[in-house]
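Why do we bother with a discrete structure alphabet at all? Because it lets us treat a fold like text: something you can write down, compare, and reason about line by line. To make this less abstract, here is a complete entry for ABC transporter permease protein. Read it the way you would read a sentence in a foreign language you are learning: slowly, and without expecting to understand everything at once.
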Amino acid sequence: MDIGESVRMAIATLKANRLRSGLTMLGIIIGNAAVIAMVGVGQGAQRYAASQFESLGPNTLFIVPGTPQARNRTSNVPQTLVLEDAKAIATQVPTVQEVAPQIQLQQRVTYRGRNTNVLIVGTTPTFPSVRSFTVAQGRFISDEDVQRHRRVVILGSDLAKKLFINENPVGQQVRIKNLSFEVIGVMAEKGAFLGNNQDEAAYIPITTMSSRIVGQRSPYGISLTFISVSARDEQSIDAAKFQITNLLRLRHQIVDEDDFTIQTQKEALQIIGNISNALTLMLAAIAGISLLVGGIGIMNIMLVSVTERTQEIGLRKAIGATQRDILAQFMIEAMILSALGGLIGTGLGVGGVMLVAILTPLEAGVAPVAVALAVGVSGSIGLFFGVVPAQRAARLDPIVALRSV
């Protein structure tokens, strides 16, 4: 018997038991779809995280007070960074281009009965260039605003729309912590960063923030939430981190553990990439269990099929079919089930990834490696789990089989 005839007989047999064949393929379909979807969504999450960090500004470093261990031990953020540290970094570190110190606090902003609780950022004129923000209307904070502790504010685009609706906000007065602030500008749209809408923030001079909103919290000067630093270029990032570390250790007279943490975009992306890779592999492994279950289902159904078709096997052997012919037919049936299930599962997985890309901000995409791996594994599973039933059918004694006729 040639391969073509074996394939035709296998297809005819599977068509005769459509419901059973469909249920047998279900495990393979779910496994393939889940593997492709999980890998595609995982890679999309990585690309989304990378784009989010790139939006923070090119070649940016972030200096935060305390160590991760210290911040975990207490709910209060350590007050170890002050404005003078930021000024020292700007003037004494040659690999640094600009420095933007920041103080952040949630406060209520009010305008004519409309109010909302948003992030208030006290900063300096260098903030837009360091963090890649632009002003869409009006102007940003000036050096004179900082020196004179002026009560001026720049609104994020969404915050301006929420408070002023169709009015022009520039020149109007809003209230922050029961103090009146003049709106001098509106920022261009920036988008969300890891779930936080950067367009709903308000920006005021750092000195005004310290003296009027948060108050003096450190005996050594104006304490900061963190410091954003832009290196001169990508090649200067590591050197800038090293030089800033040495400068702050000297200024803080540190001889043991640092009381600050410096993190670069590259390090943050690496951490997120490692986490997302681990989660993707874990989810893909869990999804792969469905492929294993599907393979066991194929073997189970094929064993049942051998039992049901004992007479057919006996008759075929009696008229000249060899063990190889019987083995080939049952192996082909198992491979058709797994291959067809793999193709359907691949289609569902690709469709799921495309749906995620349309409905969410994740830049999900279909990974060719994942498709090849899922289809290859499903085909291999059909081949592997089809061996036992096929061998059992091929070794069946025709005399014993014909006795049941």
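What the structure line is telling us, in plain words: Residues 79-258 form one domain. Residues 29 and 344 are 6 Å apart (CA to CA).
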